[in-house]
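Subgroup meeting minutes
Present: P.N., E.W., G.H.
Scribe: E.W.

1. P.N. recapped why we're keeping a running log of single-chain structure predictions: easier to compare across weeks, and new members can see raw inputs and outputs side by side.
2. G.H. added today's entry (155 aa).
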Amino acid sequence: MGFSVSGSVVIVLLGLFIALGAYYGSASNAMERVAEADSDRTDQFDRVHDTAIEITSISQLSGVTCGVEVQVNNTGATELRVPDTDLLVDNGYRTEWDDSTVDGTAGGAEPNTDLWLPGERLTIEESGLDRSPRSVKVVSGPGVADTEEVSISCS
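Output recorded in log:
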């Protein structure tokens, strides 16, 4: 009778040890994931907070029936990518402005780069418009945007 009680206690304690080990592993992994998600959220918040863009001019694009040239400055501290930047004309998403240029402060026009660094100006040319636009909105990769009303008329 003494051995069966001792054996039962050993089996119960061994099962309890295995169960606590599995619980600790899953709880530890869950806390790591929560901490990592919180860190990612903080990094995204900091990136949005450090991003700023400003539309400096909108002019009529020469050589086409109806088009606009938009110049946008990266006034924040975040490095942006041109492919992640969106253009909306009269709340319509425009995609045909891929030949944009980034004008750096020292290097001049850089048509083959997709980096838009702080202090640089992005020139967007959109020529496929059907009518005179009323507003232009530029949205950066982190979601920071600037909107301006347009006062040009297409012929």
